[in-house]
Structure formats: structure tokens, C-alpha cells
Specification:
The chain is an all-alpha fold. It is built from eight helices and no strands.
């Protein structure tokens, strides 16, 4: 009985540790992609100065609207609002691409190729972020880990049947297991929960662009 209990608890500890590591890696990857997206948008905003004056102004305005939608994407929203943000983001991406495409077609040059490449980075970065947010710990993994945790708790409870005076002590194990599961689930959930991905770089970029935008009265 002691060997089986020890082996089960060891297996549960290893699985929780590996799963926690998976959640942390995904969390760090999402933060890196948020930084990369902010860099892509900021770079393309600067490259927009190379466009003709009217196209440059329209592209910058679209990029600011796009940046606002990307910041909203990271905030805690209901499903309907998330769908609305995705739809608006797709519309702005289409508008941005149509804004720079005629310029590149009318005059093929290294400068215009650089602008097109930067816009491509902006559009791709959103796809990478979305893919990272969909990359969660599989439900099958959660189910198997839960099954092992239940077995481990049953073994601990069975081993504690002769220690009725210290029942409260043996409640520590299921409590610690539950907290571990909550922590993993919270880290693996980028939009909900306590630990979330904050768009710090995107917000900093937005504040920087607002400061650079001339006032209409000037």
C-alpha cells in the first residue's frame, strides 16, 4: 500500500510540474508575441511617412484604429464583444492592405517593398497572437491529470482511515492539489482569471502615437 501510494503521488507531482511548465511557456510566448506585435505596428507607422501624403495620413489613421482594437482584444470581454473586435480587426486589416497595395503596384521600388513588408508583418503578428491564445492545454490532458489526482486523493484518504483524530491534517493534500490546478488553469487562460496578459507595449505605443499626432487646432 505504501509503495502504491508513494508511486501515485510521485506521478501526480511530476504531471503537475510538467503541466505547469507547459502553461508558463505558453504564457511567456504570448507576452513575447504582444511585444512583437507592438514593434510591428510601431515600425509600420514610421514607414507610412514614405507613402504619398494622402495615403500616409490614411494609413496612420487606420493603424491607430487598428492599435485600439488590438488593445481591446487583450482586455476581459464577453463572447459577443470578442466577436465584434475580431470582425472590426479583419475589416481594418483589409483596409490597411488596400491602402498600401495600389502604391506598390503603381511604383515598384525598394522603398515600397519595405512598406509592404512592414504591413505584412503587422497582419502576420495578429495571426501569431491569435494562434498562441488558442494554444491551450488540451482537455484530454486535464481529464487524465484529474483522474490521477482523484486516485491519489483516494489513496491518501484510505491510508488515513486509522487517523480519525487528524482528519483535518489529511485535508491539506486535496487543498494543495486544487490550488495547483487553479494556478495552472489561471496561467493557461490569457484573458480570464487573475494572471492575464497585459498589453503594456501596445498601450505604450498608443500613448506615444497620440503624443506625436498634431492637434486639429494647430
Amino acid at each position: 500500500m505504501g509503495v502504491i501510494q508513494t508511486a501515485t503521488l510521485t506521478l501526480l507531482a511530476l504531471i503537475i510540474g510538467f503541466t505547469f511548465s507547459m502553461a508558463i511557456d505558453r504564457h511567456d510566448n504570448r507576452e513575447i508575441l504582444e511585444e512583437s506585435e507592438a514593434n510591428a505596428i510601431g515600425t509600420e507607422y514610421l514607414r507610412a511617412d514614405l507613402l504619398p501624403s494622402q495615403a500616409s495620413a490614411r494609413t496612420k489613421d487606420l493603424l491607430q484604429q487598428y492599435l485600439e482594437q488590438r488593445i481591446l482584444f487583450y482586455s476581459k470581454q464577453d463572447k459577443e464583444k470578442i466577436q465584434e473586435i475580431r470582425q472590426k480587426t479583419d475589416e481594418l486589416q483589409d483596409a490597411l492592405w488596400k491602402e498600401v497595395l495600389p502604391v506598390a503596384r503603381n511604383q515598384a521600388s525598394p522603398t515600397n517593398a519595405l512598406i509592404i513588408s512592414g504591413m505584412n508583418d503587422v497582419l502576420n503578428s495578429q495571426g501569431y497572437v491569435q494562434a498562441a491564445w488558442w494554444n491551450r492545454i488540451p482537455i484530454a490532458a486535464w481529464s487524465l491529470m484529474t483522474a490521477i489526482a482523484i486516485c491519489a486523493n483516494l489513496l491518501v484518504g484510505f491510508g488515513a482511515r486509522n487517523f480519525k483524530k487528524n482528519v483535518g491534517l489529511f485535508m491539506i493534500f486535496p487543498f494543495v492539489t486544487s490550488v495547483s490546478f487553479f494556478l495552472i488553469a489561471d496561467i493557461d487562460s490569457p484573458r480570464g482569471g487573475v494572471i492575464r496578459i497585459e498589453p503594456r507595449n501596445l498601450i505604450t505605443l498608443q500613448n506615444s502615437l497620440i503624443a506625436k499626432t498634431p492637434s486639429p487646432n494647430k
